[in-house]
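Re: that chain you flagged

S.,

Sorry for the slow reply, it's been a week of failed gels. I finally had a moment to sit down with the sequence you sent. For the record, here it is as I used it:
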Amino acid sequence: MTAMSLLSIGLCVALVAADDSGFEVHKGRNTYDGWGSEDLDGNKMWSGRSSEDCMNLCMATEDCDCAVFVDEDSWSYKAGDCYLRGKCDSSKFQKAEGFEIFEKTNATDDRKEKANDALKDSWDEVDPDRLATITKEMTHPLYTSYINQNTYHPDHGSDDLPGNYIWHPTTPLSCSKICTALPKCDCAVYVHVTHWSFLAGDCLMRANCTTAHFQQDVGGFEVLVAEADKIDEALVHSAREWAVDYLGTIGACASAEHGCLETERANGTRAHHLIQKLQDLLDDESPTSTLPQLITAFCIVLAAIIILVVSFTIYNKKAAPAGDETVILIQETGRP
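Prediction finished late last night. Pasting the structure tokens below so you have them in one place:
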């Protein structure tokens, strides 16, 4: 039997297996709201499932078009996690190692019945607190999202920050918080998929961001633009305190056009340099931040003293006439 024949048999077996399940399997892919699908039924998550369980969950759910299954621990995800998705578009699925998508292709009544029988009482949701954490990490409050866009120097809408680091791994939330902490950072580029030499979870800082000049149709990239009018000094101070503790726990490298120029290192020279710079800024901010409190305390004490003095003066003035009237009364009656 020739190698070509063996290959043909293998492909046929794979197709039959896929057909038997009623799903097409997309290995190394992920999808979620805005990236090839919509969250289904409150974005519920099931933990500790097998790939077969995940398929059954989707097959038994009428509105489920595809399911995301996690093969290995990644970020806040754990192997065995299963998510149901609706309105799935395979052309927009994102590259993501450790994930696979089961796209429903043939949902017969027989398959639905078998899926329901297999599940029985296993529909209970697991680990809602972890799901809430994951959901939060995918948000970017106070930052506007420009999906499938990129920005960089010199002709695509921004300037590099000094050092031009790539930070990894991050989430949209931590990526935006790093930008808030850094002076002159107006926007951050978040990488959702492994492409060129960039990795899913990479984060790059940018300055002087102009949205009209962003590069368009860059699949898997997202620009997070700071809403400057909503980010006050207190938020910046808080972000810097957080970044001092956080930046030493993730990797950093010098950025090139298509990824890192050097090996990514955690808690290395770059991280230490930036952490020290942020700590210096925090130290400089401390006297300024406490001055308003000192002024407020001084004003409260001064006001209290003034109130006491005024009250004492008024009391004495009221007491004086009463004494005069007593003397007159004694003089007229001849007795106290």
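What I noticed first: Confidence is low (pLDDT under 50) at residues 3-18, 322-336.

Talk soon,
D.
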